[in-house]
Specification:
This is Phosphoacetylglucosamine mutase. This protein has 537 residues and is an alpha/beta fold. 40% of the residues lie in helices and 18% in strands. It has a five-stranded mixed sheet, with helices on both faces. The structure holds 2-acetamido-2-deoxy-1-O-phosphono-alpha-D-glucopyranose (GN1) and magnesium ion.
Length: 537
Amino acid sequence: MASSIIEASQKHPRPGDRTFAYGTAGVSPYRNLLDSVVFRVGLLAALRSQKLNGKTIGVMITASHNVPEDNGVKLVDPMGEMLEASWEAHATSLANAQNDHELIARYEHLISSLKINASTPAHVILAKDTRESGPALVTALTDALTSVGAKYDDYGILTTPQLHYLVRCLNTQHPPHSEPYGVPTEEGYYKKIGGAYAKLLQGKPRPGPITVDCANGVGAPKLRALAEYIGKDTGILDVKIVNDLVDQPSKLNYQCGADFVKTQQRPPPASQASPLARCASLDGDADRLVYYFSDSDGTFRLLDGDKIATLVASFITDLVKSAGISDLKVGVVQTAYANGSSTAYITKTLGLPVICTPTGVKHLHHAATKFDCGVYFEANGHGTVVFSHAAHTTIASHSPESPAQASALENLCALINLINEAVGDALSDLLLVEVILVHKGWGPKEWDSTYTDLPNRLVRVEVKDRTAFKTTDAERKLVEPVGVQEKVDSLVGKYKQGRAFARASGTEDAVRVYSEAAERGEAEELARLVADVVVQF
Ligand SMILES: CC(=O)N[C@H]1[C@@H](OP(=O)(O)O)O[C@H](CO)[C@@H](O)[C@@H]1O
Ligand SMILES: [Mg+2]
């Protein structure tokens, strides 16, 4: 084994003195440096599969919303979740081995310390987004898998959530799973969520046209395929796709996409919709979604992950109640970046519990499993709903006592099929929002008016050493460097409805400062002052 790994690894040498880290979004984003990392992540994927008795592990090659020249890689665990946190360090360890000798030593150390039976057959599935560097990185990955004798299936170009879906389907085909999550094919994905969407819209008015900005990425062909599956003639998914230049890789995420819209607080130039028309943007690998529209007076209105979370949580709460089910706990999970107004709306108006976790969907996902119906979204539009085992069995075995309850129950079952429980999924979330707006009889303005966002500001601060910034309380308070938090607190105290925090980014070499206040000018000022404090330290 060692000799075949070395022989393959020699084709994917480690570049100079770079240090890689497996973090919030896998190893990402890196430019031209990822070949050896992907090779080594491939070795780890096979080990992960062997450790879990041959369960299928996913490898996705993408750098999401980042610039086209970057790329990244992440692993998907058997139920479609992010790689278990304790294994991130193993990925980092293999990625940073200085030479092949050290690589083999670390690989063999993992086998012995994790008690892996090296003769267990491994199975890995892989996919990539539309980046130009994708095919070469797939070669690095498959070279690694071949060198350790792992079986693999290459699914070509997919959205990140489609790969998560496939992993979950493949690992739920047999007992102890009572039924497979779905058919493990791309078509099976469209059939499952498209079918649930059509069911939820039966007898309802059509949603009307929606403009979807696909960030010039993989979302464009996949949304088109989904719309085709749902059927043009049914007229229930009338999408106008913009930013679909998939054959021009340099356009990926350029002046478009969910991250552009959220951070710039403006529509992508290519998305020209009339006032009050629904618009949405996906990111480069289609796991984030934001909505927006322009008001009658032309003002841009953003409906971000917080607005999606509140919409979904309120709909599920109503549906559970209408179905006559009383013992399911619905809750929402957010991060510190959630707008304070959304948190107040969830607790006070919707009467639901909220959990705040550190940034990164793996934290949110995990916390959401504490509820029967756990709705989680990052403000940037990445999120989904997870249903507990109890929720699945209660809903499946519930006997309705009236036609109204029966219809609510049917909708609840269809809703579960519409939602991608494995991971936040822009295509599934898009259909989900469309369904809810139809059921509520709302346009984007009614949805937007549920609560008013507090003016806020997010700034990126360059510092010498971001690791000096250590936080507690779901990243809302700094414990190091000592003394910074007191300064932040005294600034925040001066602003009406003021809130601010600073934390080291997990994906970029910077500290992020977030602020909110009652007035726009105050939020801006607060962010600036907190950023000054950060720079001083
Ligand atoms: C403020 C913000 O949007 N942070 C993003 C960003 O994390 P940072 O740790 O802030 O760099 O990238 C993560 C991965 O995509 C995403 O989960 C997170 O929400
Ligand atoms: Mg993404």
